[in-house]
């Protein structure tokens, strides 16, 4: 079997594989979105860090400063509520103002909210808010970005979905439905935007961070069996950290790390992923749902 080695110059080129490109990551002041922004920045991509609430302004500004300094790129925080037509339009307009010569090379639809409740307690307000952010928001952003996408299929759009779209977890009538809708739009956009960009979704399972921590004890107990049968969530004593081993005992397995999810998104943004579109890519540690 043949083998090859990379010289130093080629390695440096590969490590800056997104040099000069522009990426927009919605909901990226913290959590998965921030990890995705860092993954793109580490490869030379300029990034727009989107956030919605005033309380996230310091986080977004700090992240932008850190990424710019650490990775020698331009990172710009932009406050915009992508669940409204005006907010989505202003996000893309701000990106174009800061990077007037760049196409929107990469768009990550990450912003989302999770409101879990058993069926009798689901309210119209829960439904409206969730679908507005999780479904309408990505639609509006893609509409606003479409005129500025590349014309040579080099663009990349990645929608952050959830295993909840297919697993049918109790209490997630609304949240699971929004993610199923996002996956359906992914397949449609892959066809409609085929000359501009690949369009894929990433499907995480339980991930560390405040969103998972906000779930009820009942939900976490209900998902425990799924986690226990997910191959890569099995913690290994003597290999994984003591915190991961302890976490695995509490949850039935360790949670995905933010960087692990960001890594899968980053792969889909590479030139090498140019033949992958309209797909839902599992980033859930091998969660076996059937």
Give an overview of the whole structure:
It comes from Trichocladium antarcticum. One of its GO terms (molecular function) is quinone binding. Pfam families: adh_short (PF00106). The chain is of the alpha/beta class and 290 residues long. 46% of the residues lie in helices and 13% in strands. The protein has 11 helices and 7 strands. The protein has helices at residues 8-15, 31-42, 57-71, 85-98, 124-145, 164-167, 173-192, 210-213, 217-228, 242-251, 258-268, and strands at 22-25, 46-51, 75-79, 106-109, 155-160, 197-204, 280-283. α5 packs parallel to α7. The longest helix has 22 residues, at 124-145. Mean pLDDT is 91; it is low at 1-13.
Short synopsis of the structure:
This protein is α/β, with parallel strands linked by helices and 290 residues long.
Question: Could you list some keywords that capture this structure?
Answer:
290 residues, alpha/beta, 7-stranded parallel beta sheet, 11 helices, 7 strands, 46% helix, disordered N terminus
Number of strands: 7
The share of residues in helices is 40-55%
| Shape summary | globular
Instruction: Give the termini distance in whole angstroms.
Output: 37 Å
Our estimate of the beta-strand percent is: 5-15%
Main sheet record: 7 strands, parallel
Order of SSEs: HEHEHEHEHEHHEHHHHE
Total helical segments: 11
Pfam family, one: adh_short
Keywords: NADP, Oxidoreductase
Family: Belongs to the short-chain dehydrogenases/reductases (SDR) family.
Protein name: NAD(P)-binding protein
How are the SSEs ordered, and which strands pair?
Layout: H1 8-15, E1 22-25, H2 31-42, E2 46-51, H3 57-71, E3 75-79, H4 85-98, E4 106-109, H5 124-145, E5 155-160, H6 164-167, H7 173-192, E6 197-204, H8 210-213, H9 217-228, H10 242-251, H11 258-268, E7 280-283
Parallel strand pairs: 1-2, 1-4, 2-3, 4-5, 5-6, 6-7
Helix pairs in contact: 2-3, 2-11, 4-5, 5-7
